[in-house]
Amino acid sequence: MFDKILIANRGEIALRIMRTCRELGVKTLAIYSEADEQSLHVQFADEAICIGRAPASESYLRADRIFSAAELGNVDAIHPGYGFLSENPMFAEQCLDCKINFIGPSPEVIRQMGNKACAKEMAKKAKVPIVLGSEGVIENENEGLKIAESIGFPIIIKAVAGGGGKGMRLVYNSVSFSKEFNVARAEAEKNFGNGRVYIEKFVEDPRHIEIQIVADRHGKVIHLGERDCSIQRRYQKMIEEAPSPLLDNSLREKMGDAAVRLAKQCAYENLGTVEFLVDKQGNFYFMEMNTRIQVEHGVTEAVTGIDLVDLQLRIAAGEKIPFDQKNVKFTQHAIECRINAEDPDRHFAPCPGEVTLYYAPGGNGVRIDSHTYGGYKIPQYYDSMIGKLIVTGGTREVAINRMSRALGEYIIRGIATTIPFTKAIMSDIDFRAGNVTTKFIEEFMKRNNYG
User: Fold this and answer.
1) Can you tell me the mean pLDDT for 361-376?
2) What is the enclosing helix (H) or strand (E) of 305?
3) 92: number of CA atoms within 13 Å, CB side?
4) Which of 4, 97, 389, 445 is the most exposed place for a label (fewest CB within 10 A)?
5) 165: pLDDT confidence band, cut at 50, 70 and 90?
6) Res. 409: pLDDT tops 80
7) C-alpha–C-alpha distance, residues 48 and 54, integer Å
8) Is position 73 within any domain?
């Protein structure tokens, strides 16, 4: 096992990684920007080094400063968390060049699966179902329009290097294609420094189901079940649960096997997530692979009892996965609500500022992952998520009722949050019945006059 790990991230995920490190007797080095000096991950680390000013471009995205901190701290591994540089193959390569273990897959795999066109081709080789679309990058709008018309509208334009809904545009007809094509390319260039895009047939009203996989360097690959991430707004997930109310054992096994085949095809190592769309007929299609730990990993931990960060560290240190597929059991139902500093009544406008009062819910089956506390000033420079509330129950109904109770106890004053919004969802008839698609939030807001 490693002696000291630099956590190249901030907020709740840095704190989450730190907790497992402490249980394993591994020392931690936190990095932070000037805006994060009072963040809990800085206070709880064994050591902490400021690496720059508040904007991420001057701190958390500065690989040179991170490696300077790693050298000063004499670390032997770096955990990238999620976001920032976690899926940057050059950063992973630099770790190897500096003789520092990168806790994640190889740079080659990150590069390959981070390129959506390459990932799609890899899925085809692994005989994983894919959505009809372009064979690769679309060079210009005329070529794109011909492909779109051959596939049939509606289609979706996606950034090759995309993620989080950036560089994605839905197109319903040829009239609007040119505009949306150029907007998608400009957005992709702005967010990823790569304006290349590709086209897929748009699957209408799907469910978004992802499969958690784990692979070691000794050839073992297994899956840890699914998470239903259908409740999302503008491609940003808001509520996740496991197991999915949609899947039966047969479909779960098929999707799990497909995810494992893909991981084997690309020689994957460490933790990863294979994301699928599932249509109304129960057909599933590969969407993308995330080569890092997910925000919603706690849902899988809750239903399996497996510490995923512990697994990441052990695999990166060369250990074997200590269990087989048959040993993975799903004993609970878990739901996660992301708590964002946003105002749903003002089109989810970000609400940075000082938290004047903070009270976290408790009780049986309740878990909070958050770096927030009373008196903490939420910076304006980063993602608006300030915590995750995860509950478990013996049944889905129990978990929903427990989540509703916990959200009612969760007090954050001084800023607007999504707590009341997610609590309202817990009472929604369609949500409670499991009748949701990726359009659920849009329809829920219309029914309840939000925004």
Assistant:
1) 97
2) none
3) 20
4) 97
5) confident
6) yes
7) 16
8) yes
Is 19 one of the annotated active-site residues of the chain?
A: no
Mean pLDDT, rounded, for 385-390:
98
| Domain containing residue 365: CATH number | 3.30.470.20
Domain of 195 in residue numbering reads as: 132-201
Phi first, then psi: what are they for 302, rounded to 5°? -65, -40
CATH at 79: 3.40.50.20
Mean pLDDT on 42-64: 98
Give the global pTM.
0.91
Q: CA dist 442 to 57, 232, 262, 416, Å? A: 32, 9, 32, 20
Given the residues 169, 185, 292, 402, the one annotated as active site: 292
Name the domain boundary from 184, 201, 218.
Answer: 201
User: Rounded to an integer, what distance in angstroms lies between the CA atom of residue 79 and that of residue 164?
Assistant: 21
**What does the angle CA 177 – CA 131 – CA 263 come to, to the nearest 5 degrees?**
130
Nearest to 128 by CA among 247, 225, 262: 262
Are 318 and 311 contacting, i.e. CB atoms less than 8 angstroms apart? Answer: no
- Looking at 10-24, 62-76, 157-171, which range is the least confident one? 157-171
Contact (Cβ atoms closer than 8 angstroms) between residue 91 and residue 79 = no
Indicate if the pLDDT at residue 192 is higher than 90.
no
- Alpha-carbon gap, residue 62 to 85, rounded angstroms: 9
In this structure, are 278 and 314 located in the same domain?
Answer: yes
pLDDT value at position 166? 82
Name the token pair of 223: 């899956």
Burial of 26 (0-12, 13-18, 19+ CB in 10 A): buried
| Of the residues 186, 201, 216, the one at which a domain ends | 201
426 class by beta-carbon count within 10 Å (0-12 exposed, 13-18 middle, 19+ buried): buried
Could you give the CA distance from residue 57 to residue 33 in angstroms, rounded to a whole number? 10
Find all residues with CB under 8 Å of 50, minimum gap 6, and list them. 31, 32, 33, 34, 37
User: Which of the four pLDDT bands, split at 50, 70 and 90, describes residue 451?
Assistant: low
**Amino acid residing at 329:** K
Give the Cα separation of 275 and 255 in Å (integer): 10
- Find out whether 314 and 404 touch, Cβ atoms under 8 Å: no
Distances (CA, A) of 177 to 141, 158, 305, 330: 8, 13, 47, 44
Q: How far apart are CA 25 and CA 19, in angstroms?
A: 10
pLDDT tens, residue by residue, 300-310: 999 999 999 99
